[in-house]
Design a protein that fits this description.
The chain is mainly α. 79% of the residues lie in helices and 0% in strands.
């Protein structure tokens, strides 16, 4: 585009409007609802088993005098919860692969096989992201918010480009550069939309069925909402990738990786020091005489 002086003017490409983004996310969700439902059903099974085990263990063994039985029940409950967590990550990755490969019509077995191999890299990315962003949070809060938003597409790089660890985090940061406020705004809209949907569904369930049933059904509602939210983010990710086609040029330098690890370490150190000071201060407060 030429300006009044006849020179070419460079304008930064804009992202799709939020209403159009929501509309397209819903269209993709509705078109692939069958496969999404299959994956969500797989996810619900271990969660349901965990709930049933907790219910029956409390009903029949609560207050038991046998300490060994109590330990066994706690260990079993921990293992079931751990398995449920792994299943949740597995299915979340499966949903991402399904969204990414939605035009190829892969079957569920292929999707699950592809996502299974990404569980450990996914956990590593989540750990690094939380560690560094958490460190930034303790460095006057604002750096933590900035880094959390900057790293928000790390797992999409894992699924889309097979980038792992710090490479995925820094690729996400580079992708969002120049669009940070727009991504923050879209995340805020997504969060508000989620709260509204949950609030309305919880109100309807509470009125029609009751609060007890609501406590059981609301987690299932969150599972069925998950694909829509992932599609919403993935569409933003894809659009930014089209804008910044050369985002992946070379692996980040060691010095760059060390810099971000130091942010996490410094933040962790500050949090430990602050926690220690607060603990000592609370110990000096006299206990009330009653």
């Amino acid at each position: 585009m030429e300006n009044q002086n006849g020179h070419l003017s460079k304008t930064k490409p804009t992202l799709t409007g939020i209403f159009d983004l929501i509309k397209k996310s819903w269209q993709i969700y509705a078109k692939n609802i069958k496969n999404f439902s299959i994956l969500i059903s797989i996810l619900i099974l271990p969660i349901l088993f965990s709930w049933l085990f907790e219910f029956f263990s409390k009903k029949f063994f609560l207050g038991t005098d046998c300490i060994y039985l109590s330990w066994i029940l706690q260990i079993i409950n921990f293992l079931i919860s751990l398995a449920a967590l792994v299943f949740t990550i597995w299915i979340q990755l499966g949903l991402l692969f399904l969204i990414k490969e939605r035009e190829k019509f892969l079957d569920i077995k292929q999707i699950l096989k592809m996502s299974w191999s990404k569980i450990i890299p996914f956990l590593w990315i989540v750990f690094l992201s939380n560690f560094i962003a958490g460190g930034g949070f303790f460095l006057f809060i604002v750096p933590g918010i900035f880094l959390a938003v900057s790293f928000s597409f790390s797992n999409y790089f894992l699924v889309s480009e097979n980038l792992k660890g710090m490479e995925a985090l820094l690729a996400s940061k580079q992708l969002i550069k120049g669009y940070w406020w727009k991504i923050l705004w879209r995340n805020m809209v997504k969060g508000f939309l989620t709260l509204v949907i949950f609030g309305l569904v919880a109100l309807v369930i509470d009125i029609l069925i009751g609060k007890t049933a609501g406590d059981f059904l609301m987690p299932i509602v969150s599972f069925y909402l998950m694909p829509f939210l992932l599609i919403y983010d993935f569409l933003i990710f894809q659009e930014l990738k089209q804008i910044k086609v050369n985002i992946i040029s070379e692996a980040p330098k060691t010095s760059t990786k060390v810099k971000y690890i130091l942010i996490g370490l410094v933040g962790l150190t500050i949090s430990l020091i602050f926690g220690s000071i607060l603990y000592k201060f609370l110990k000096t407060i006299p206990t009330p005489p009653f």
